[in-house]
Design a protein that fits this description.
The chain contains 19 helices and 15 strands. It is an alpha/beta fold and 530 residues long. The strands form 4 sheets. Strands 1-8-15-12-9-11-10 form a 7-stranded mixed beta sheet, with helices on both faces.
C-alpha cells in the first residue's frame, strides 16, 4: 500500500475539514451500521438542521417575492423544504412545487426519498422528470423533482412557469404585497471531524494506489463504508475488477467487503444497490465518479479515497472539437470530496497526492463549465426563450468571445439563425424544440424532407448516448465477445462509420449538418468509390 502521513510536521497530526458545499444526505429507514439510525422517518426529519427553521422559511416565502436559503450538506434543504411548501398549501389549485437537481441520479434518488417520507407512491403526489422519463401524474403530482435542462425545456413553452407559480399580486392587495427585496436565510449543516492523510511521494498509478488504499483500510480500520473517487467508467470497472479478484484470492478475510460502481450510465437496479443499507459486519466500497462529490451523499461512508483527478469537458472553439479529458481537480473539489467522510460520524480522507502539491500547485477553484463547453445548445435555448442579445447577456461566468462567435457561426450555417441572429421560422424554432444537439436535430429535420428518416434516426440515437454497450455484473466475457464481432483491424474504421452511414442515406443531409468538413466529405467519397 502507498504510505500516507498527515500534514503539518514530521509526525502525523489531525486536520479538521469543515464542509461548506451542497449535496443531499440520505438516511435509510432501517438503523444504519454506524449506529446513527433513528426509530422513524419523522424523527429523522426533525433531527435535520432545517427543521427548526420551518416557520421562518414559510414566513419569508409568504412575505418576499424571492427567498434564498443557504444550507450546507446534510441540512435537509432539498428533501424538506419542498414538503414544507406543500404542507403550507403552495401546491394547491393544480400547481406543483418544483425542485431542480444537476444530475439525473440525484433527481431519482431524492424523489424516491421524499415519496418514502410522505408515505406515498412515487409518481403520484411526488414524482420526477428527467430526459426521456416522466414519472408524474397530471392533476395528482404536487412535488416534482427535475433536472435543470428539463425545466429550461418547459420554460420554452411556458415562460412564466404557470404550473409552479402565479403572480404574487393576484394573491395579495397592494398594501400587503410581498417585498421585492430578496430574503436570505442561512441553515447550518451537520458535519464531523475528518482526518486527512497525504501521500509521502507522488503515486505513479493512481488507480493501483486507490485499490491498495482500499485494501489497507479494510485490513486496518474499524467498520465503515469506503467511497473512492476515480475518473470514469473504465477506471471504475477496472478498480471493481481488481478489488473483486483480490477478495477472491484472499478468501474469507475479504468476504465482508461489497464493491459497487457508481456512475451516470449505471442501470437503476445497480444504482439502488449503492443506496441500500448494509447488514451488520459488511463494508460497502463505492467506486464513483465525481457524481458523489456534491449531488449525493451516501449514508455510512466513513473513509474517502481521493485520486485527485476527474473527467472534465473541454471545448476548443478553433478546432470545434469537444473532449472529455482526465484533469486534476481543484482545492474546492478536494475539500468537497473529503467532506463526504464526515456526514454521519468522524471520518478519514486519504488523498493520493502530496501535501506540497495540494498547497502549492492545486488551483483553488475549477474552471466554470460555461467557459470550457460548446455553447451551441446554450445559445439556441436562450434564443428560444426570447433573449436575443446574447453578447450582452449577464453570464455568471462569461464565456470566451471565440466560443460565442463559433456558436453563432454554427447556428447560422445550419439555417437556425438568420442574418440578424434571430431564430429562423420554422427551422430555427423546430430545432430549438428538439432536446438534442442542434446539429443532430437539423439532421433529423432534413432527413424527413429527403426520405431517409429511418436511417438518420438510428444514427441520431447512437450519437445521443454515452455508450451503446451495457454490461451486466459478471458478464464481461460476453460483452467482449459482442464487441469483437464489430471490430476490425484498421484504425480508420472508427472514423469512417458515421461518414459511410451518412453517405448511404444522403450526402445532402450530411452537408447540411457539417458545413465545416467539405474537404473530409470529398475525401470520404473518393475513399468509398475507390
Amino acid at each position: 500500500m502507498a504510505q500516507f502521513w498527515k500534514p503539518g510536521s514530521e509526525k502525523p497530526r489531525a486536520v479538521i475539514l469543515d464542509d461548506e458545499e451542497g449535496g443531499v444526505l440520505f438516511f435509510s429507514a432501517a438503523p444504519s451500521i454506524s449506529g446513527y439510525g433513528y426509530a422513524s422517518l419523522e424523527r429523522q426529519r426533525q433531527r435535520l438542521p432545517v427543521f427548526k427553521h420551518r416557520t421562518a422559511i414559510l414566513y419569508l416565502v409568504e412575505s418576499h417575492a424571492t427567498t434564498i436559503i443557504v444550507g450546507e450538506t446534510g441540512s435537509g434543504k432539498t428533501t424538506q423544504i419542498p414538503q414544507y411548501l406543500k404542507e403550507a398549501g403552495w401546491a394547491e389549485g393544480g400547481r406543483m412545487v418544483a425542485c431542480t437537481q444537476p444530475r439525473r441520479l440525484a433527481v431519482q434518488s431524492v424523489a424516491t426519498r421524499v415519496a418514502e417520507e410522505m408515505g406515498v407512491k412515487l409518481g403520484e403526489e411526488v414524482g420526477y422528470t428527467i430526459r426521456f422519463e416522466d414519472i408524474t401524474t397530471p392533476g395528482v403530482t404536487m412535488i416534482k423533482f427535475l433536472t435543470d435542462g428539463v425545466l429550461l425545456r418547459e420554460m420554452m413553452n411556458d415562460p412564466l412557469l404557470t404550473k409552479y407559480r402565479k403572480k404574487r399580486q393576484e394573491q395579495a392587495s397592494e398594501n400587503c404585497a410581498p417585498s421585492t427585496q430578496p430574503a436570505i436565510l442561512s441553515v447550518e449543516g451537520q458535519g464531523f471531524v475528518v482526518e486527512i492523510s497525504y501521500l509521502e511521494e507522488p503515486a505513479p498509478d493512481y488507480l493501483q494506489a486507490a485499490v491498495s488504499t482500499v485494501l489497507s483500510i479494510h485490513d486496518q480500520e474499524p467498520m465503515g463504508d469506503i467511497l473512492v473517487f476515480l475518473t470514469g467508467q473504465d477506471d471504475i470497472d477496472a478498480a471493481v475488477q481488481l478489488l473483486t479478484e483480490n477478495a477472491q484470492k484472499r478468501g474469507k478475510h475479504s468476504s465482508g467487503m461489497l464493491v459497487l460502481p457508481l456512475y451516470s450510465g449505471l442501470s437503476r437496479a445497480d444504482q439502488d444497490l449503492v443506496f441500500s443499507p448494509m447488514p451488520k459486519g459488511k463494508r460497502k466500497v463505492v467506486i464513483s465518479t465525481n457524481i458523489a462529490e456534491t449531488s449525493l451523499t451516501l449514508e455510512g461512508v466513513v473513509y474517502v479515497v481521493d485520486s485527485g483527478f476527474s473527467k472534465q469537458r473541454f471545448y476548443n472553439p478553433i478546432t470545434n472539437i469537444e473532449n472529455l479529458v482526465v484533469a486534476p481537480i481543484s482545492k474546492a473539489s478536494a475539500k468537497q470530496r473529503a467532506g463526504r467522510a464526515g456526514r454521519v460520524r468522524p471520518g478519514k480522507c486519504f488523498r493520493l497526492y502530496t501535501e506540497e502539491y495540494f498547497v502549492k500547485e492545486m488551483p483553488a477553484e475549477g474552471i466554470p463549465e460555461m467557459q470550457r463547453s460548446n455553447l451551441v445548445s446554450s445559445v439556441i435555448q436562450l434564443k428560444a426563450l426570447g433573449i436575443d442579445n446574447i453578447l450582452g447577456f449577464d453570464w455568471l461566468a462569461s464565456p470566451s468571445p471565440e466560443s460565442m462567435i463559433r456558436a453563432l457561426e454554427v447556428l447560422y450555417s445550419l439555417g437556425v439563425l438568420d442574418e440578424d441572429a434571430k431564430l429562423t421560422s420554422p427551422t430555427g424554432f423546430q430545432v430549438a424544440e428538439i432536446p438534442l444537439d442542434p446539429m443532430i436535430s437539423k439532421m433529423i429535420l432534413s432527413s424527413n424532407e429527403l426520405g431517409c428518416s429511418e436511417e438518420i434516426i438510428i444514427i441520431a440515437a447512437i450519437l445521443s448516448i454515452q455508450s451503446i454497450w451495457v454490461s451486466g455484473r459478471g458478464s464481461q466475457k460476453e460483452l467482449d465477445e459482442a464487441r469483437l464481432r464489430f471490430a476490425v483491424a484498421e484504425e480508420i474504421w472508427g472514423g469512417l462509420v458515421t461518414w459511410a452511414l451518412l453517405l448511404v442515406c444522403n450526402e445532402v443531409v450530411f452537408k447540411a449538418v457539417e458545413p465545416y468538413f467539405e474537404n473530409v466529405w470529398e475525401s470520404t467519397i473518393r475513399f468509398v468509390k475507390d
